[in-house]
Structure formats: C-alpha cells, structure tokens
Amino acid sequence: MAVHHHLVWDRNVLYSGYTAVLAFFLKFQLPFKAVVAFQSLLSGLAASCLYALTQRVSGRWQAAFLATLAYVAWPDLQAWNFYIHTDALFCSILVIYTYLLLKAHRMRQLLLAMPLLGWLLFLRPNGIVIGVATFFYVLFLLKEHSQIIFRRVVVVASVLFILIVGFSFNRILHNIFSLIAIYQGGSLFGGHPFMAVTSSTPLYIPAPTSPLWQQLVLFIGHNPIYFTKLFVLKFIVFFAQIKPYYSSLHSIAIALFIYPAYILAVRGYRKPTLTQPQRLFFVVLVGLQATIAAATLPDWDNRFIVPLLPSIFLLAAVGFPAGQRER
C-alpha cells in the first residue's frame, strides 16, 4: 500500500488488520514502544478473558487460575508481545474472540463477536482457520435447535465451498510461497538440515509452466510416499515444538511443561462440561492449523502454534484433576 498508494490484492492484504494498527500509531507519531505497550495490554485483557472462559467451562476457579497462569508464564507465548509482528495481536484477539463466542447464548451475543472475527481474518492469512472453526461451532449450535435448518445449511455451505475453492484455489497458490520448492527441500525446521526428509529415488518435479494446482497434484501423485512422510513428520514436529537449534534448557522446559499440557488437554476435551459445539470448535481450530502448517511452511520458531496454546491451556486446566476425588 505504501509503494503503490492503493490496496494490492495479494496475500499481503491478509495482514492489513495489523498494518492498520501500525498506521494508527505512526499517524499520531507514537513510537513502536507504544505498539509494544498496546500489545501487552491486549494480552492482559486476553488473560482475563481466558480466566473467565475457563471458569465458565470448568466451573472451577482453580482451573481458571491454572490456565491463566500457564498463559502468562509461558515465555514462548508472551515474548511475541515485544515484537512488531502479527503474532501477539492475533493470539490476544483470538482469546478475546473465543471468550465472546463461546459464552454467547443468543444470536445478538454471537453478532457482537463478529467484528473481532473480521479483524482476525485480516491479521494473518491463517485467520481463515478461525472462520472455519466458527462455522462448525455455529453449525452444530443450529443442529441442537433444528435438524432441518442444519441440513439446509450443510448443503448450501458445501456448494459454496466447492465453488469458492474451485475458483480461487489456483489464485491462492499464486500468492503464497512455492510449495513445490518447500516440499523438494524436505526441511522440517525451516531450512535447517536436521532430519530433513530425503527420497531414495529422484523426485518427480512438475513443469514450472503448468498451472500451480496441477503442479501440486502431480507432485503429490508421483511422490506419495515422500509427501506423506514429509507431511506426517512436519505434523509431529509442529506439536513437538523442540528444535535442534534450541538450548537444552529450552527443550527440557518444553518437554516438562508442554507435553503434560497436551495429555491433560486430551483429558479435558473429553470432560462432559464441554458441549459438542465447543469441542468441535477447539478440535477444528487446533487440527486445521496443524494441518496447514504441515502442508505448507515448517514452523521453525513455533510461531504457528502460539495462537493454539491458550486453547490447549484451557483444555489442560479443565482436565487437571480436581482437589476432591472425581466420582
């Protein structure tokens, strides 16, 4: 926008929600320290929302305290507040939005959360993950009230999804990094050679003149074992979070803190205090984000999992054993 003096419709449009924030601070000649302060304040508000949502879901203030403590204390999450980058704002707004969405009981309350959803869609390209998770949440809320409306929405949404994907898929591929080059490199850690996936036979590389969607289909179709191995390992590495270039202390902290949180989150996910729509929202949010990361860029600095951590901490707190023996 600064170069062309108008909105350029490429993938950078999906960052315009953050550039608008920066433009506001620059317009009033405020330093970047003010942006950091703003991001930190929003993170504090998000912590309050996480506390309230966890207490609402679990019915226990102890669980709310644990989820909020994990959110505030985990340095890999809070460190992003001190960068001029989309991650901190995206994470904070997502927590606030999730609180407003899941506590809503009427359509009017749901509509109050929609401006934040619009902002999330234009903070980062993966904001679409929030949109999909919200769709399934609202869809299954409808299912609880009316099976007829549920079926109609499913049919209409399926047709619209096929049309949108059909018309826009190749354009989307044009506006992201070259996936074929990323796959060909085989890196699990953003260019780092550690555990890079290799093939025992030469990989089939489609002609660069072919349409991008065709290149993608041909690459996967001709290299199915290689692609599957790369995808599965990237999916595992996404949740593992430990990197070969992290210090031993950092890696140990992840193993001792994050891995038990995963186990507790699975336990919390199965608790009856969560409704079916709430479960679906969390599983779509976490699963789709991980799938996109595994299918595209390696998460070399754990940025892509940061927005998921508050939800994981919430579920882990719900799954944490209560003080009294559960019956």
From TrEMBL:
Protein name, UniProt field: Glycosyltransferase RgtA/B/C/D-like domain-containing protein
UniProt keywords (A-Z) are:
Membrane, Transmembrane, Transmembrane helix
Annotated signal sequence is: none
Which residue intervals define the domain Glycosyltransferase RgtA/B/C/D-like in the entry?
30-165
Q: Which Pfam families match?
A: PMT_2 (PF13231)
Q: Which residue ranges traverse the bilayer? A: 12-30, 83-102, 114-142, 148-169, 225-242, 248-268, 280-298, 304-323
Q: Which domain of life is it from?
A: Bacteria
The UniProt entry, under InterPro entries, shows: RgtA/B/C-like (IPR038731)
